[in-house]
Design a protein that fits this description.
12 helices, Immunoglobulin-like, eight-stranded parallel β-barrel, globular, about 25% helix, seven-stranded antiparallel β-sheet, TIM Barrel, 2 domains, alpha/beta
């Protein structure tokens, strides 16, 4: 069969700087560190490792975290936080108690706590997103923690922090009011009414200590749980005016060899976001609020949950290997597509956290005492975090559709674009969901060309492979890497490219002439 016969029909869209969805919020490039498995111990923290710094944190993991482009890290959980005593993790290590972690049947030595994490976050250059225990604890514990972290000095808890070596307040601005309290697996599961009341009262009390903080209310732990929708509505009717975000969590995996549906996972994420926005706006209208609540998609990733043996089948132990999924090319393409969806909702999604950062279904893997390496999903995240700047433009693609068993007919093309109004730089992010056949793509740039002059390709990066199940391993850490794309062309007004099947692509364009209207000079390719 000829190459042309193998190709799909042409897909395309136009970009216009007048049609802006929202700003690219750097908080969309967040991640998640939980006291679970080997995420903390032998993940970010391993004092005996050859690369360890004076505080015991692995420098190789710090370097990879910076390369990943993570802007924000949620901590310390996750399910872990719902039975966590934050006081156990502060003060002299020799005096800290060893506890049972009920969430993951782990032995928790509390060698890493709030002060150690905050030091790591400062060194890596990420914003902390701190969670409080509203499962087995409540208002007073949350108030005590924020006083310990954020009050300058002169009270018992703020002076205690200073005694523990943190002379300056941590000044944590972003707080999660618990975690997945709709789930029967959670310590201290709540009804939506119970949680809504608790969240509202905790929010009010925490803001009495520090009125500058932002607060995230717990939303549904996934979009398939029986209480989805009802949970958001009831919680927000009580807490709407006291919080700034409602959370979303969801994970995706390929089921029974259904690659086509898996590659269309972002269709489900898109629907999930739309449903939560609609529910939040309905409650906002009902309580006659003038504000629009934003969304925090603070757990998302590919996770092969069917492989997980379940918490109840685990033995009590310290830092076990736990859900350390090895990700393949198709997984990376799906992660790239999910990032496209998050950007596409930049008007309402203000925070997103790839869960988790190290070892636990993570972009970074480590060996205790040994090497660290990048999983396939590392690359679309890192490149998107590096390239996406300015504003997200509205993209309305046309082109072929493909059939999936899970989601019906979906577009073969999943795409978004960002635009820097100052420099004229455009970044196009695109996924070909088709399992066979390359997808020709044509993007009309004339509306941007009118403002900045002709645009030319300066970067073209593609992640794909003949083997969509190829992975990176400790023995072959660079088996799957992004490569320079082939054949992206621009005449200044339109860019044309052929997207391989099961692929993720990033194209960056810059003007080559002085802006004819503003006189600003722009980079040359």
């Amino acid at each position: 069969m000829s190459k042309a016969a193998e190709d799909l029909a042409l897909a395309g869209f136009s970009l216009d700087p007048s049609f802006v969805i929202g700003q690219v919020d750097r908080r969309l490039f967040g991640s998640f560190v939980e006291h679970m498995g080997r995420c903390v111990y032998t993940g970010i923290y391993e004092p005996e490792h050859p690369s360890a710094d004076a505080a015991g944190f692995r420098r190789d993991v710090q370097d990879l975290t910076r390369e990943l482009g993570v802007s924000l890290v949620r901590y310390p959980g996750g399910n872990f936080v719902s039975s966590y005593r934050w006081e156990d993790g502060v003060g002299p290590r020799a005096a800290r108690p060893t506890r049972l972690d009920l969430a993951w049947r782990g032995i928790e030595p509390n060698d890493v706590g709030v002060n150690e994490f905050m030091g790591w976050a400062r060194d890596v250059g990420v914003e902390p997103m701190m969670a409080v225990n509203l499962g087995t604890r409540g208002v007073q514990s949350a108030v005590d923690l924020i006083e310990y972290c954020n009050h300058p000095a002169g009270t018992y808890l703020s002076d205690l922090r200073r005694e523990h070596g943190a002379k300056k307040p941590h000044d944590i601005k972003l707080w999660c009011l618990g975690n997945e309290l709709d789930g029967p697996w959670q310590m201290g599961q709540k009804t939506p009414h119970e949680y809504g009341r608790l969240a509202a009262e905790t929010a009010k009390a925490m803001r009495m200590v520090d009125p500058t903080i932002e607060l995230v209310a717990v939303g549904s732990s996934n979009s398939s749980i029986e209480t989805f929708g009802t949970w958001e509505a009831e919680v927000l009717e009580q807490a709407y005016e006291h919080v700034d975000y409602i959370s979303l969590h969801d994970y995706y995996e390929e089921s029974a060899g259904d690659l086509a549906s898996f590659l269309a996972s972002s269709s489900d994420m898109d629907r999930f976001i739309g449903a939560v926005v609609a529910t939040a706006d309905h409650v906002g209208a009902k309580v006659r609020s003038k504000k629009k609540l934003k969304l925090s998609f603070d757990e998302w990733n590919v996770w092969y949950q069917k492989r997980f043996v379940g918490q109840q089948n685990l033995e009590w132990t310290f830092a076990r290997e736990l859900i350390e999924d090895e990700f393949n090319v198709a997984d990376a393409v799906v992660v790239g597509s999910l990032m496209i969806t998050l950007l596409r909702h930049a008007d309402r999604v203000g925070i997103a956290c790839l869960a988790q950062l190290v070892n636990i279904i993570a972009p970074i893997r480590t060996d205790p005492g040994g090497a660290s390496w990048r999983q396939t999903i590392f690359y679309p995240f890192a490149i998107t975090a590096r390239m996406a700047r300015g504003q997200v433009l509205r993209v309305e693609p046309s082109g072929p559709r493909i059939h999936t068993d899970a989601y019906g007919d979906v577009p073969a093309l999943d795409a978004t674009a960002t635009y820097d109004a100052e420099t004229g730089e455009v970044v196009i992010l695109a996924v070909n969901r088709a399992t066979t056949g390359s997808l020709p793509l044509e993007v009309d740039l004339r509306a941007i060309e009118d403002r900045h002059g002709d645009l030319h390709v300066v970067d073209h990066i593609t992640l794909n492979d003949d083997d969509v199940y190829a992975t990176n391993t400790r023995e072959h850490p660079d088996r799957v890497v992004p490569r320079a794309g082939q054949g992206a062309t621009s005449d200044g007004k339109k860019v044309r490219v052929l997207l391989p099947c099961v692929s993720w692509t990033a194209i960056r364009l810059q003007p080559t002439v002085t802006n004819p209207t503003s006189g600003d000079s722009h980079a040359r390719s």
